[in-house]
Amino acid sequence: MKWIGGLLLGVVLFVVMLVPLLIQGAQSLNDSPNPLTGSLDAASIPQEYRDYVIAAGNVCADVPAAAIAAQIEHESGWNPRAVSPVGAQGIAQFMPGTWATYGRDVDKNGKASPFDPADAIDAQARFMCALTRFVQPFVAASGRPAIELAWAAYNAGPARITQYAGIPPFTETQNYVAKLRESMAAFLADSVPVSGSWAPPLAKQHMIPTSPFGPRGSPCAGCSSNHQGQDFGAPSGATIYAACDGIVDFAGQMSGYGNITFVNCGNGIRTGYAHQSAIRVQVGQKVEAGDGIGAVGSTGVGTGAHLHFEVRTGAPAGGGGLSGTPTDPRPFMAKRGVTW
Description:
Blueprint: H1 8-24, H2 47-56, H3 65-75, H4 96-102, H5 117-135, H6 139-142, H7 146-156, H8 158-164, H9 171-186, E1 214-215, E2 226-227, E3 230-232, E4 239-241, E5 246-254, E6 258-266, E7 269-274, E8 278-279, E9 286-287, E10 292-295, E11 307-313, E12 325-327, H10 329-334
Antiparallel strand pairs: 1-2, 3-11, 4-10, 5-6, 5-9, 6-7, 7-11, 8-10, 11-12
């Protein structure tokens, strides 16, 4: 909680404005949009903390379990004994003063401790839910989800949210929010429908088509004016899925494409997935349609986080590189039961 060492004014305003919200209890604010949707990928949570995180995600609708996991990952790396240079303690990095308000003995072992994961993760959920209630008046005006404003309040102090009526223009705070948003995506397990041996490369909520296949005005310096794939406006960190059954024949970096993976689907067909923030397969690995193979990012040349999806046909056996002829993915996938 880096804001603890900030202005005394921020602390005073926080206490004055938060007390009425504590009295309201933990009711959810269902009209506040979350930055990402989808179910928790429980397997991505360390097993010893999994039940605590799942329970914490049920405290209020604005703070889902994936948001809890993302913040723990960033703050302590799941270390229950962590102590920061400024004195924040435990897996959820509570300062003693804040712990005095939110700490309770959840596992009934006789002591409420920030070093007890059961106690700390429960307290984190209730604290973040209180912050989402605090920032609620600024959701509509700022256009940002309550959870993002709450992350900003956690980092910079609630008074700064009031001052700027949204996320303050501090590089550290803006980077903090962006990092947690990306990390949250990694803890979501979105399922994709499989049609035979084919599937969409992204979960339904991320299949937002932007730049299509074919000639176009170059959208940025270095961007192609003859687009060889289909772009989707998915958020950084969202899971990328194999669109076909096949074997990975390329996984690495390419000029312009950044981090890219190609899956050889057989019969001279290859599917490509560019600009990834993380590649999660390796060359020679067998995959099935719908398997998670990477994460959306903004590596290479582009205008921001998105998935560039390619289909190539007529590739030689073994594929590799950019072998095969680029084909418009939309009609190709539609014939195989995948539409957008």
